[in-house]
């Protein structure tokens, strides 16, 4: 059926979507692609995936090439750099291509889910700022009842806006709690082995750390490995981000205290659904905040702890 | 006997041709394949894009060709790219666009010359020195920007990367001018001769009265300028400066030079080889994007092209 | 005749680590003369030349050029004063063409842009003036060593230097090319150019030089006009004793001695054809020919370093036909290559690594080297060959040219081969050492090693060989033995084509 | 006059000492600084950690030393690291732990030998070949894992990376054994001599009867094994395999070798230099973490800390 493109019957013609992501070899992205593929099959859409391997210029080139190829009705863009893609997104909009922002907003304002630039149909994701706020709340919970709470924070990549926003928001939350002090702040590249090494060293200097927070479950688990090795894992509360299958299991096993749940599979489904609707001219919401989707998230929000771990199924 | 001989002769001749012109062959072949596999490929717009997208790496690779022919590496170009871009963005964000561009270029030149001075004065290996200065320079860029985006809204600043003249994007003009400059420098000037000589046999060059140190300093200065130029184009394209841009530019540039057929042993090579190296790689990525080759297979296919003679 | 002095050195000292290479050297060179430097290997001749040309800086002492005290930090500054060096080892940019090498750094230019036409004009003028012709557009790595040397000479002359330092230029030139060079030197001298000329060929010096300085252990032992000197006085000054330079008496092998090496109809397309000869156990066979006649190629082919197109190589009647040097070595063949820098030694590595390299199995049990055994055997060899300094762990590049040659010999004596191919074994070796090498070659032959000797020094070849075959353009043109071993007959065969 | 001479003499002597032993000096200095700046540094536990954390890069760097002395580079070790790790993880996840380890090592050996064969048979530059095969091998690892984590829950599998023997972590034993093996290979065997010889002057080595091709193939085989070994340790440490691990290992290993003082020109170098190069860099990272130096400033301070994130 893909041949009769001249057919005017819009429901028979497969809708062609280009999806631009950051990296492919990653369980999070694989889960999201699974969601995308499932929905695409249901809705008779075809989605081509472009991965830029965290290279902003490459992503711009990919979008440019996709515009030139003239094959696509809609773009789903997970921006490697929110602001840098604006010119090329404008180019796409000018060509009449539907644009959906995935995971994070496009444009200079990374703290709200308002579509930018004008013409972008929908933003489906959550901001780093709100994730950080949730992580901060979890930290407060972990610090409850402690006179002095020493915290280590592992950031994935300090040069990523979303990661920095999370950290800034978390600091904002604990601003009024002088008993909470961040004694170590290091960059662990979202890697479990590197986080383990760094925390091995940090625990040497601060064996009395109370809470470890990171912007990725892998890193939190690496920190847990290091603490277990030093025999101090029982004294420490570990907070992760993403709530991967491993993180979820670790919460269940009492190893992790909490994790912020990401729902890539649901995101993938929503992205395709929204894109298809928009191409068909149906109205779509201006933004979908993934934190507010319950189910799959528990009704009280995206923070998963031992209390609500059974009410949530990890998606990646 | 006679036949065996002739065969042997032709074989070596073929080898020589392949070694010398393999890059052109590979380029033409890929061009034809793409032209036949996708109607989108052979459009003015797409070819224009290909060259436009080659600008940054192309500019850096041309200067890198000089460094490699002289038997050196510059692994700090990625960092200079970011540093100069950030300097320019910071100044441009304050409204002084012209001054921003100037400051970007000059900072690249100064950093390049510093590389050259360190390498010549301490008789140190350029690989190690530029690896280290690259880290320092990128660290400085981080401190300069506080790790944040520097957003430039001034439309004048975006001319460099986003505007067109006579329907052709400005970066293409800059690329062509830079190719011409480095080509002439290398092929037609005494400086170019000196570059080949110090790469081929530094001792012989010294005995011939070549000022080896000065030549090296100039080479690294040129590399600094090229990195700055490329950085400015990128910053202007995306209307923002950031300390972690261009992190792959150095390795990309080196691999383009080498794929073109310039030897890392030094003493040999040309600019046109590098230009073909850059275009070949860009063509391949473009083809992958147009045909939407799966990223898994992209890697495998992409690797094969590196091994071409 | 009292000429103006061009160069004056005052108590120059130079050390390399622990080696005191030059000790209080003082020297005066007059304008428009040829000033020769002679001395044993390692005496410091090359070091002195390099200091004058700005390659090295002296630790102390003063240099006066035209009575002005100068301090050169690089050859560039010396060149600006008209001082050019033709160094002992070839120093050209291999990938650049002949013409590019010659005019490197002095290209005619207009604001940095090279003007090729004018350079070409200058090139032809230069060729005409010097009568040394080389095709201009070939990359120099394609040239044979002798031709590369000519490029270096042209490079020095193209700079219109007032002082040219030549460090053993004739060590790798053939007799007729050397004659051309001498004519050129005389011509340039008459127009006022000054020369410092380093050589181990005393005849050359006696006929070419005006003054001669003899060096020993980093010191100048005497300087005098060449008319007052003779071979004998020079040798005595150099060595501190007199050494007879006669060739050792030939001891011929038994006529029924077994054939050690037999080469049958060996050909390599385009290089040499139909080469057949035999060498008996204990026999020295000389290979005579002009530079480029193909002698080196024949030797390399026998050694398995280059492929052959046809023919057989037999060792003691067994076909070996080596396809790699490793096979040749296993069959008992050894090759002393003509370029010690490019093919012979690994300059960065210590002498001991170089010497034991082809025979590691002999000092190893399984894969493990017995380091003490190795050390002892190498040390013994070095002292037998009188290598200075006697340090197995010194890097080969820190040795003087002649001592490097001795190390190269030591490499193949570590384990005695059945057949030794020696390609220009005395290139760059001082008279004393040359004599020692002659003795060595003879004693090896007496021990029953078959020797194939290649040398461009015909006198040496005749003095040492039991039998000589001549090669011209890759073909054998004659064979001489007994009373036929005479220079004129062999010369004739060298120049005649095909037999 | 006499004094001037003596001064100069001492100066050059100092230079020689610095060149030869500068790495030891730098190491000792940093060690002292850290010991005085933090009480946490000079504890058994911390020093133990430092060596434990050095295992992977140390193992790869020792083998890389052989490659660099022989005048070659192996840029594919990072990919082999990942590939072998993934192979082992996949097999171990099915329950065959012993076979998994064997398969990991053997796959590394085979990939290394293939590198060597390509380089020798096509007389190609090792830099380019391994750059390309590295891409291919990592692509294969991605296809193998489908880009997902391979989680290994078998506690036996985690012994390699996580257990201790006599209070000392297993990776430390492996590191020490591997250092000894490469040290002996390089310093005491005929193979080691061949490595130096082909790096110093390949033509002279050939004419001395060295089998240059075979030596190179063995060198790349050893590099393959080392990469696999390091990959297995990492996978065992984190109980999971993934196609993107070890992506910096090649550059890290090369920079450690070079920082130790082994020349990339080939023909010179030793294993102890590399060991100190590895430890120096690791000491630096450890210090940064213990003293909680901001990641921004780490980059600048770690100028010579080159490739570590
Ligand atoms: N770069 C160097 N490093 C260390 N020692 C050196 C170096 N160059 C020369 N020497 C030493 O200095 C001394 C003089 O060497 P030089 O090359 O000047 O001798 P030469 O007279 O030219 O000998 P030859 O006739 O063999 O060429 C020798 O003992 C040599 O080992
Ligand atoms: N590198 C090379 N490239 C091209 N031709 C070469 C090369 N080397 C040698 N030849 C050619 O091979 C032939 C034989 O050269 P070869 O060097 O064997 O001569 P030879 O008699 O040993 O002279 P000598 O050793 O005195 O230079 C010559 O005709 C020469 O031109
Ligand atoms: Mg000498
Ligand atoms: Mg010869």
CATH architecture of chain B: Orthogonal Bundle
- The SSE string of chain B, one letter per element, is HHHHHEHEEHHHHEHHH
Helix content of chain C: 25-40%
Major protein interface: A-D, 32 and 35 residues
**In CATH, what is the class of the largest domain in chain C?**
Alpha Beta
Number of domains of chain B: 1
Overview of the molecule:
The complex is a heterotetramer, with one copy of chain A (316 residues), two copies of chain B (309 residues) and one copy of chain C (499 residues). Chain A is of the alpha/beta class. Helices cover 38% and strands 20% of the residues of chain A. A six-stranded parallel beta sheet of chain A has the order 2-1-3-4-5-11, sandwiched between helices. Chain A has a six-stranded mixed beta sheet with strand order 7-6-8-9-10-12, sandwiched between helices. The longest helix of chain A has 16 residues, at 27-42. In chain A, 63% of the residues are buried. Chain B has a single domain (43-305), classed as ABC transporter involved in vitamin B12 uptake, BtuC, CATH 1.10.3470. Helices cover 76% and strands 3% of the residues of chain B. Chain B contains 13 helices and four strands. Chain B has helices at 2-37, 44-69, 77-93, 97-121, 126-145, 159-162, 170-188, 190-200, 202-207, 212-238, 249-260, 271-291, 295-306, and strands at residues 150-151, 164-165, 168-169, 240-241. In chain B, the strands form two sheets. In chain B, strands 1-4 form a two-stranded antiparallel ribbon. The two termini of chain B are 30 Å apart. Mean pLDDT of chain B is 86; it is low at 1-10 and 305-309. By secondary structure, chain C is of the alpha/beta class. Chain C folds into two domains: 5-239, P-loop containing nucleotide triphosphate hydrolases (Rossmann fold, 3-Layer(aba) Sandwich); 259-494, Rossmann fold (3-Layer(aba) Sandwich). Chain C is built from 17 helices and 24 strands. In chain C, the strands form six sheets. A six-stranded mixed beta sheet of chain C has the order 6-9-10-3-11-12, sandwiched between helices. In chain C, strands 18-21-22-15-23-24 form a six-stranded mixed beta sheet, sandwiched between helices. In chain C, a hairpin with a 2-residue loop joins β23 (467-472) and β24. The longest helix of chain C is centred in the middle third of the chain and has 16 residues, at 175-190. The radius of gyration of chain C is 23 Å and the shape is globular. The termini of chain C are far apart. The chains are: A alpha/beta (316), B mainly alpha (309), C alpha/beta (499). At the A-D interface, α1, β7, α6 and α7 of A face α2, α10 and α12 of D. Residues 45-46, 88, 167, 400-401 of chain C line the site of one magnesium ion (MG).
